[in-house]
Every structure is written in structure tokens, then in C-alpha cells.
Specification:
11-stranded mixed β-sheet; binds zinc ion; Rossmann fold; binds alpha-D-galactopyranose; 9-stranded parallel β-sheet; Immunoglobulin-like; single chain; 25 strands; alpha/beta
Length: 670
């Protein structure tokens, strides 16, 4: 597959014209409005199964033919969905096995969506059939751009079919050797020893829920079962439309599926972006969203991703659905493109007249015309995207990376110890990312298995579980000259949650960091530990690793309790590189100060030659540098040298950005 799925940036929306099948004048109006909004694509058929197969084996593609033909005639691309995200009622009534069983053992009744059994052979077969019909029918259709598989895969099923599949999965994982499993799950403890795989069930509140390795295995299985469901879905598409790329829309940092593993099977990574702009200072939301964009960009080695959904107004599912300020939507789109998105798409094109989502923001309101604030902002995004079109397909790689690993997040969720609440693994990763973001230094966000060789700086916070190979990869990265930052509760367990013996951090990491963590103290909520660094006092929270230096140098010290004066941050020259160990969850100010040192030492360069005000950041994509102000207050900044303003053609040596303003710069050409 190419880096570029389409020659252009995609501006589009979930388009559900089946809601308006009896009012064709709305279908006509849709296309007129799409032109006015500068939209070049529409995502169709996401939950259309009952329209496509109204009764078992009776199909009706006529309406979809017409939609596809109308889109093609209007010069628009179709992202065509497979309908497995919601089932027709007839199917659930006649074949209840398609319905998910809860952890309690109760089977769901028909309703809502996103809740099918992951294993049911009948459901898998039906999905395959309908996908094959879609693929055969539209394989040569001029509108077809991409496949959108199902919708937001998520959840788990505890039915007997899934239990059996889980046991088979475990047999493969543990070489069909129950004693191997007993050892790795440490089942001798509390009489949990099993004599056969048949004795195993999914973790349950009223059953086995105190074996962390079982919980971990169940999460791995559920994730794999989603992936195998996906593979079943795409098989007919690969057969009939091998050149048409496939995606499925992912959900932020949803941990029910290992997104890194799933991404390997996708041609295009795409995700649904619904930031809570109004709940917190916009800069906090901007950092979190930037992080997620970078997670998805990094999944395919810097290849562009799609922002498959977003809303140009408010959602309907927060407790309070406040309207974002004017300009926020355009800035959200600019941010996505700056971080590598090749699309800005919405849920949905036109507000539903009835049903659950009728008050969810959409491009076209119930009012039905183009003279609305939201429509004007969407059209502005469309015009802007036409000016930025040259970036489409461009791959972006950074020289710094933060490791944020799905399996590690699971392992952190399931252990019992130190502190029960607020482990917040991805939040910890984001606090390191934030310091780079504020300095305009580009950062990839990668899994523990990623190739580290291209990075000058790798930050791997809270690496509690070491996957096979991780130890060697980290050691060899530093040996060859890399700079690594890791820390607290790092290197405690292996892939099965068995602790390393002989001192933490485990395996070769002690040698790498030059420290031995003898004990770990836990702090109460709200309790802070003073940390003295560079003559200043900062704070840390959550836990404090109490360390002995074994070759490392001490850079910061704890300020209280029996371990006052002992190392809180250490540095160890190792091979040609350097390994830092941060013993606690540092506050943002300490991370920021330490990041300045890291940037100086590694020679990382910011994407813009300027001192950035607190809510402003800059991100380079190809030739363009996007400067964004995530604040309701204007911001001005002098530039270190003159740039060309890509949008106005003028030469600029300073920027005055309005509230939620942005600029797109490029280096001056001689
Ligand atoms: C998700 C779904 C959409 C829609 C939106 C609403 O992202 O994929 O179908 O329900 O949420 O925000
Ligand atoms: Zn099931």
C-alpha cells in the first residue's frame, strides 16, 4: 500500500442518507451543501445492515447504489463501511448467539450497538457474506476510496463460545502445558493450581478475579479476538478489492484492544477525536489530543492517519455539552493536520431528526441551511485544507519518542500494590510529552516493541512490565549512544506478571541505569514529596523508589522521610549513551527543567525558531510549520528569523496570534 491513499486531504463526514430515504430533496440538498462546505468525501453505510438485508437472505442495495452514484457524479469519494457495528433485530431474535454475554453470565437482549459476540461462527459468517456482497458490488465503483470496517470495535463477551475460544487461545500460549501455565500464573498460591485448561474461565466478580496473570491473559485474548474478527471481516475485501485500503476507526487511548497490534493489520490508521475543550484549560486538552494524534501517526512509522470523526460543535454525551468557542473547531482541524492527519471528518453530516444522537453536533443543523456559525467554520476548514493540500501523504518522523505501551497499561491495571488508585499510566507518559510539546520539539509515541534506533531521546516512564526483547532493546539503544529516561516502578515483572528476582529494576536494567531500587514508598492522595534538583525544590507524588547508586550519579534528592537526601533522579553513562532514572512522579515544573537539560544534551531542535509562549506550540509537517495558540487570549511571539507565511505569502518576523489563532509558515526560499 502507498503512503498516500488519495491525492488529496480528505474533508468529509459520516453520511447516513438512509435516514432521509423518503425525502430525496434532502439528498439533492446534501450534495449542494457538501460543495459549499468544500467536502470531498462521505463515509457511508456504517450502521446500515437492516437497510441492506431487511430479512435474512433478502438484500436491498438499490438505495446504496444511488448514494454511491450520486457521490461519484458530484466528484466525491466514498469511504464505504461494513455494517457489523449494529445488527438487524431479526438476526438477534433468530440467532441469539450473536448477542454478547456479560461477565455476570447474562446474555444481552437486542439493543444499542457495538455489542456482538466476538466468536459466534454464525455472526462471523454473516459478516463475511455481507462484506463479500458489498465488495463484489462496488469493487469498480468510481467513488470507492477506502473501507471503513465496522465501527469502534470495543468490549468483551463471556459466552460459552468465547470461553472455549479463550481456552484454545491459552493452550497455544502455554504450549498446551497446564503446568507451564500454573508456574507462570503462580497458581500454587492460595490453592489456585489447575489440572486442565477446561477448568479455566474468564475473570469474573463472582469467580476468579485475584490472579493478575489470568486477567492479563483475558485482555490479550479479547484483543486478539477482536483482531481475528477484523481479519474475518476483511478477507472478502482483500479478495475482491486488493487495492482498496482498509481502516477501522479507533477510540483515543481505549485499552480494550492492543491498538499497536491491530494497527499492523490496517492500511490506514484512523481515529475519532472528541476533545473536551470546555472542561479544562484548552492547553491541557491540546496536549492530550496532540499526544493521541502522535500515538496514531507513530503506529505506521510516521505515515499519515485519518481523523475519521470529530464534531464541529458539541457532542451529546458529556454530562454538560458546552459549545466550544468560535475558532476552536478550525484550530482542532489545524492541529490534526499538523500532527499528520490526512483527513478532517465529522460525525455526522446532517443532524438526525430522531433517535439517540439528534442533538449531537453535525455540519448541517435541523435548521437545514448553510447560514450557521458551525457550517461557516466547516467551510473555512475546507478552504484551508485546499490550501494545505500539498502535505497529503507526507510521512513525519521525530527524533524524540515517548513509549506508551498498551500491554504495559494492562499489566499496570491488574497488579495489586503500592497505590490502588490514580496509576494513570498514559497520563504519566503525557506529562513527559507535554514538556516537549511546550518547547515545540516533535515527539513520536511508540510501543515497547518499536525500533528505537532512529531516536536521539527515548522516554519510557513506568515501564512496569518488560515484554520479551525489551530489556535487550533498551540496553542496546543506550549502548549505541541513545539517551533513555525511565523510572519509578520500572522493570518489576515479565510478560506474565512474574517479578524479577535479584533486585529492581529487573534483568539488565539495573546495570543499564546503575541503580538498585531497594524499596518503594507510596504517598497518600494529595501528599507531595519535595524533590531538590538544581538547587530548587520541586514536588513529586504517587510513589517514590528508594534507590542505591550502583554506578549512576545523583541529580536530584528526596526532601523528606527516612530517605531524605537519597537519589530521586539519577544519570548513568552507559556504552556511548546515557540512562536516566526518575524515581517518582515528578511535577510538571521539574519535568520541564529536566527536559531543557535533555534537549541541550541530545541536540534536539524545536520545529520553530522562537521562544514559545505557554499555550502556543509549533509542529513541522513537510515544508510547513504550524503554529497554534490554544488559548482564549491572543499571543504574540518574535521569530528567531524571518519565515514566509504560507497562507498570505507575506514575510514575517513576528507573529500576533488571535484567540485560538494559528499560522502556517515555511522557510524563506532564496
Ligand atoms: C462515536 C461513533 C459515532 C457517534 C459518535 C458520537 O465516535 O463512532 O457513530 O456515535 O461517537 O460522538
Ligand atoms: Zn461470545
Amino acid at each position: 500500500m502507498k503512503d498516500k491513499y488519495c491525492d488529496h486531504l480528505i474533508h468529509g463526514a459520516d453520511y447516513n442518507p438512509d435516514q432521509w430515504i423518503d425525502t430525496k430533496e434532502i439528498w439533492d440538498e446534501d450534495l449542494r451543501l457538501m460543495d459549499l462546505a468544500h467536502m470531498n468525501s462521505a463515509t457511508v453505510g456504517i450502521f446500515a445492515w437492516s437497510m441492506l438485508e431487511p430479512a435474512e437472505g433478502q438484500y436491498d442495495f438499490g438505495w446504496l447504489d444511488e448514494v454511491m452514484d450520486r457521490l461519484a457524479a458530484a466528484g466525491k469519494k466514498a469511504i464505504l463501511a461494513t455494517p457489523s457495528g449494529a445488527r438487524p433485530v431479526w438476526m438477534a431474535k433468530a440467532h441469539p448467539e450473536v448477542l454478547r454475554v456479560e461477565e455476570t453470565g447474562l446474555r444481552n437482549e437486542y439493543g444499542v450497538r457495538h455489542n456482538h459476540c466476538l466468536t459466534s461462527p454464525y455472526y462471523r459468517e454473516k459478516v463475511r457474506q455481507i462484506n463479500a456482497l458489498l465488495a463484489r458490488r462496488y469493487k469498480d465503483h468510481p467513488a470507492l476510496l477506502m473501507w471503513h470496517i465496522s465501527n469502534e470495535y470495543s468490549g468483551e463477551c463471556h459466552c460459552e463460545l468465547c470461553q472455549r475460544a479463550f481456552r484454545e487461545w491459552l493452550k497455544k500460549e502455554y504450549d498446551n502445558d497446564i503446568e507451564k501455565l500454573n508456574f507462570q500464573w503462580w497458581n500454587g498460591f492460595w490453592s489456585h493450581k489447575l489440572s486442565s485448561f477446561d477448568e479455566i474461565s474468564s475473570p469474573k466478580f463472582r469467580g476468579e478475579n485475584h490472579v493478575p496473570a489470568l486477567k492479563l491473559a483475558w485482555r490479550r485474548f479479547t484483543s486478539d479476538q477482536h483482531i481475528s474478527f477484523y481479519e474475518n471481516e476483511i478477507a472478502p475485501l482483500r479478495e475482491y478489492t486488493p487495492a482498496v485500503p482498509v481502516t477501522t476507526n479507533l477510540m483515543r487511548l481505549y485499552t480494550g484492544i492492543d491498538y499497536h497490534k491491530l494497527a499492523k493489520k490496517l492500511d490506514v490508521v484512523s481515529w475519532d477525536n472528541y476533545p473536551a475543550w470546555c472542561e479544562r484549560p484548552p492547553v491541557d486538552t491540546a496536549v492530550e489530543t496532540a499526544f493521541v494524534h502522535d500515538v496514531f501517526r507513530s503506529m505506521k512509522d510516521g505515515k499519515p492517519f485519518y481523523m475519521m470523526e470529530s464534531t464541529p460543535a458539541q457532542v451529546n454525551w458529556f454530562a454538560v455539552n458546552k459549545l466550544p468557542d468560535p475558532g476552536v473547531h478550525v484550530l482542532e482541524a489545524v492541529q490534526a493536520i499538523a500532527h499528520g492527519a490526512d483527513s478532517v471528518q465529522y460525525f455526522q453530516w446532517r443532524k438526525s431528526r430522531g433517535g439517540h444522537e439528534k442533538f449531537h453536533g453535525a455540519v448541517v443543523d435541523h435548521y437545514g441551511k448553510e447560514d450557521t456559525r458551525v457550517f461557516r467554520e466547516v467551510a473555512e476548514v475546507g478552504r484551508l485544507m485546499e490550501q494545505l493540500d500539498a502535505v497529503a501523504g507526507g510521512r513525519t518522523k521525530a527524533k524524540a519518542a515517548v513509549i506508551a505501551d498498551w500491554e504495559n497499561s494492562w499489566a499496570i491495571d491488574v497488579y495489586c500494590g503500592f497505590r490502588r488508585d490514580g496509576r494513570d499510566y498514559f497520563g504519566v507518559c503525557q506529562s513527559w510529552y507535554r514538556a516537549l510539546w511546550q518547547r515545540g520539539v516533535a515527539c513520536d509515541v511508540i510501543s515497547m516493541d518499536a525500533d528505537l534506533s532512529g531516536y536521539d531521546l527515548v522516554i519510557a516512564p513506568y515501564l512496569y512490565m518488560l515484554k520479551p526483547g525489551a530489556e535487550d532493546a533498551l540496553v542496546s539503544y543506550v549502548e549505541k549512544g541513545g539517551t533513555l529516561v525511565s523510572g519509578y516502578l520500572t522493570g518489576l515483572v515479565d510478560r506474565d506478571d512474574l517479578c524479577y528476582l535479584g533486585g529492581f529494576p529487573g534483568g539488565r536494567l539495573r546495570e543499564l541505569f546503575g541503580v538498585w531500587v531497594e524499596e518503594t514508598d507510596a504517598l497518600y492522595d494529595g501528599e507531595r514529596m519535595p524533590v531538590i534538583y538544581n538547587g530548587k525544590t520541586y514536588t513529586s507524588r504517587d510513589v517514590c523508589d528508594i534507590m542505591h547508586l550502583q554506578g549512576a550519579a545523583q541529580l536530584a534528592a528526596y526532601g523528606e522521610r527516612f530517605y531524605a537526601g537519597t537519589p530521586a533522579l539519577t544519570a548513568h553513562a552507559f556504552g556511548k549513551g546515557k540512562a536516566y532514572y526518575a524515581g517518582s512522579r515528578f511535577d510538571d515544573a521539574l519535568i520541564a527543567d529536566f527536559t531543557d537539560t535533555l534537549i541541550n544534551e541530545t541536540g534536539l531542535t524545536p520545529d520553530l525558531d522562537a521562544a514559545l509562549p505557554p499555550c502556543v506550540t509549533a509542529r513541522r509537517r513537510g515544508e510547513l510549520i504550524f503554529v497554534m495558540n490554544f488559548s482564549a487570549a491572543p499571543a504574540s511571539l518574535p521569530l528567531g528569523h524571518t519565515y514566509a507565511d504560507h497562507l498570505t505569502g507575506q514575510t514575517v518576523s513576528a507573529l500576533a496570534l488571535p484567540a485560538y489563532g494559528y499560522a502556517v509558515l515555511e522557510e524563506m526560499k532564496n
